[in-house]
UniProtKB/TrEMBL annotation:
Taxonomic path: Bacteria, Pseudomonadati, Pseudomonadota, Gammaproteobacteria, Pseudomonadales
A GO cellular-component term linked to this record: plasma membrane
Primary location: membrane
Bilayer topology term: Multi-pass membrane protein
Residue ranges of domain Metallo-beta-lactamase in the record: 503-687
Protein name from the UniProt record: Competence protein ComEC
SMART domains xref list: Lactamase_B (SM00849)
GO terms of biological process kind: establishment of competence for transformation
NCBIfam families documented for this protein: ComEC_N-term (TIGR00360), ComEC_Rec2 (TIGR00361)
Length: 741
């Protein structure tokens, strides 16, 4: 039985690693073959094929429900109902629209929409909207949040921007009740932590500021403020312990068997908490795990602890095979497996403080391979922070928040309890802030497979019971994590990454021992590309410090993320064509024509139009040469600046050209292209951007000059091995079945 379950789970998990989905006819053949094997008792192969075919079929249904390519970028009138809890932040309303209909075409079942400057939108309302629809699309970089994967896992088939709309029906249903409860909670004075209290009760994390997220990430405590399996299991455990305690003290009615009632009430409380939190995929996963665990405790405890974990894993993936695309899935089941491994074989009873300390230590070590594989930050202060925060949130914050929410109809009492819950969170964040300042999170570089395998093996050995002879070897196998052997360009060569930052620019240049960042991408309100995309990608490539951060000019799409990058890693020098318009904290030097330097056999030279007044024309131009191969970065210079550059006497001929001003009609003049004579052009821009970049006439001009065109909106991040005379590599070309090619 266990072998069959393991094989079934392996088939379901195989979906996560597929570069492309098999054709439908092949999946039907595999499923039929699996069924035919069952009478011959070939259970492992049969169950693997059944799990694999079901996972791929479910994923194909989700892909087929995406917006048709013919409607990408089109504006349609449609009707639908708002689901989930809308997010209101910085004048933007973001919400999910389900069961949308249009007279012109069939639409995906779920869409994620944004309404800039729109009116309040509430869950359960029905709207008629004019929406500019887009197919699911996200930025693709060496290390950043995979938005396309997240959208597919949520089965969201389109995104869009609302142009106008009218409310057809007022809010109604359970979603409307949750939304009204959230509004009521946010009106309570909770020391400014109303958003955190709502996150604990309703699973609504939109009230947490970016600074809060950074703090939770640095201390490894994100799981405490976002409703997860821990919260659901905590409530179920409290109810179970209450019934068991009453039975032990003789206060439980003898006519009612305490164990079945304890399990039933515990599951009912977990289910009620899940419904209150919206019953999203992580909560459904937690409720299923609690149900399996309680059934095991009630009837099947003699079968061991691993069977319920396998059954829960199989149940979660059967109901939603796309759950394996989410990091939370791997971390939650990984955490349960680690705790089961460590505590199932212990001898005797441990004190509560020893149990808590052992749990935090083993979780910090045990989840290390998963965090590395998923590219997530590793918090060195996590064990200490969680040692304090887990009982704090579990015993103080969550009970106060839930009880206060339940008693909100009672004047003063419910609000007072929520006030106390907010007070507890405020003090928790203050303490976590001290810990984070002392030891922030570490984002390790992307490790070679052999190094990761050593770390995973070492972790497993360390977690083995004391007394196992090879256990000490595990610590030695973890050493390469802290001294990784990273790939570096050879002397005289350079590695260039044009990152995918949407409508903006960020280019990383690495030599054998130095690193330069040309521009840092944009910042939109609290969403900072420098923090969310550029910094994680640069760190994942093994860069720990920047020798130069060159900001071509001060426009937001080129310098918006500069402060976040400077805050995240040491920067030796900042250069800019417009230093006076930048923040004084950057302490930028002025870019001047004729400055040059050499790193590891790679030559750099800058130029700036001295007659430029301000804006795009002041962009600092950078030329890089490695082994005779040149790259020219031009910022946002216009046609007049191009003429000045060509006439300046600087050698402008280059093999690679980063398109001036994202391919704007005011740049890339024929005379400039003729002088540069590149063989390829790199365009950094956002898909469906409001400026129409790149302009069709400019694209036609590039084609007339027979240039290879690498467009970040179509290719994702692009890698160039300067000095190797090789073709560029596009990250979007790497096989991921959920990405458009």
């Amino acid at each position: 039985m266990r072998t069959g379950i393991v094989a079934f789970v392996a088939g379901l998990l195989a979906l996560r690693f597929l570069p492309a989905l098999p054709p439908t006819w092949l999946l039907s053949v595999l499923a039929l073959f699996g069924l035919m094997l069952l009478p011959f008792r070939s259970y492992p192969l049969a169950f693997f094929l059944l799990g694999f075919s079901w996972a791929c079929t479910s994923a194909q249904w989700a892909l087929d429900d995406r917006l048709p390519p013919s409607l990408d970028g089109q504006t349609l009138w449609l009707e639908g109902q708002v689901s989930g809890l809308p997010e209101h932040r910085d004048g933007v309303v973001r919400f999910q629209l389900d069961e949308a209909v249009s007279r012109r075409t069939r639409l995906p079942r779920s869409m994620r929409l944004a309404w800039y400057g729109g009116p309040p939108v509430h869950a359960g309302e029905r709207w008629r909207l004019a929406v500019r629809l887009k197919r699911p699309h996200g930025l693709v970089n060496p290390q950043s949040f995979d938005y396309e994967s997240w959208l597919l896992a949520q089965r969201i088939g389109a995104t869009g921007t609302v142009k106008s709309g009218e409310r057809l029906r007022a809010a109604q249903g359970p979603a409307a009740w949750r939304d009204s409860l959230r509004l009521r909670m946010l009106q309570v004075d909770a020391h400014g932590r109303q958003g955190g209290v709502a996150a604990l009760v309703l699973g609504d994390d939109s009230g947490l500021a970016p600074a809060d997220w950074r703090l939770l990430q640095d201390t490894g405590t994100v799981h405490l403020l976002v409703i997860s399996g821990q919260h659901v299991a905590l409530l179920a455990g409290l109810v179970y312990a209450l019934v068991a305690g009453l039975a032990r003290w003789g206060l439980w009615p003898r006519s009612l068997p305490w164990l079945p009632w304890a399990c039933s009430l515990a599951f009912a409380s977990a289910l009620g908490y899940g419904l209150l939190a919206g019953f999203e995929v992580p909560v459904r996963r937690a409720c299923l795990m609690v149900a399996v665990l309680l059934i095991w405790r009630l009837r099947f405890r003699h079968l061991g602890v691993w069977l319920p974990l396998l059954l829960a894993l199989a149940g979660v993936l059967s109901l939603e095979p796309l759950a394996s695309l989410q990091p939370g899935f791997w971390l939650s089941f990984g955490a349960v497996a680690i705790l089961s491994l460590v505590f199932s074989g212990r001898l005797g009873a441990w004190s509560w403080w020893r149990t808590l300390g052992r749990a935090q230590w083993t979780m910090a070590v045990g989840l290390l391979p998963l965090l590395l594989a998923l590219g997530l930050p590793i918090s060195a202060s996590g064990p200490l922070a969680n040692l304090l925060a887990v009982p704090w949130v579990s015993v103080i914050s969550v009970p106060l928040a839930l009880l206060g929410t339940l008693l909100l109809p009672v004047p003063w009492l419910g609000e007072g309890l929520l006030w106390l819950a907010g007070w507890s969170l405020e003090w928790l964040f203050l303490i976590l802030g001290v810990i984070a300042d002392w030891l922030p999170a570490w984002l390790p570089p992307k490790l070679p497979l052999w190094c990761w395998a050593l770390a995973a093996t070492g972790t497993l050995l360390v977690l083995l019971p004391a007394g196992v002879p090879v256990r000490g070897l595990g610590l030695a196998l973890l050493v390469p994590l802290f001294f990784p052997s990273l790939e570096r360009p050879e002397p005289g060569r350079a590695e260039v990454w044009m990152l995918d930052v949407g409508q903006g620019l960020a280019v990383l240049v690495r030599t054998n021992g130095h690193a330069l960042l040309y521009d840092t991408g944009p910042r939109f309100g609290e969403f900072d590309i420098g923090e969310r995309v550029v910094l994680p990608s640069v760190r994942s490539l093994g860069v720990q410090r920047l020798d130069v951060m060159l900001l071509s000019h001060a426009d937001n799409d080129h310098a918006g993320g500069a402060l976040a990058v400077q805050r995240g890693m040491p920067v030796a020098r900042v250069l800019s064509g417009e230093p006076s318009r930048l923040s004084a904290r950057l302490e930028a030097d002025a870019c001047v024509a004729g400055e040059s330097w050499e790193w590891d056999g790679v030559r750099f030279a800058t130029w700036r139009w001295a007659d430029a007044d301000k804006g795009n024309a002041t962009s600092c131009v950078l030329r890089i040469e490695a082994n005779g191969e040149r790259l020219l970065l031009t910022g946002d210079i216009d046609e007049a600046a191009e003429r000045a550059l060509v006439g300046s006497g600087m050698t402008v001929r280059a093999d690679w050209l980063v398109a001036p001003h994202h391919g704007s009609r005011s740049s890339s003049s024929p005379a400039f292209l003729q002088a540069v004579a590149p063989r390829a052009v790199l365009i950094s821009r956002g898909r469906h951007n409001a400026f129409g970049h790149p302009h069709p006439s400019v694209l036609a001009r590039y084609r007339r000059f027979s240039l290879e065109i690498h467009d970040s909106a179509l290719t994702g991040a692009v890698r160039v091995h300067l000095g190797e005379w090789l073709p560029a590599q596009a990250l979007r070309a790497q096989g991921r079945f959920w990405r458009e090619k």
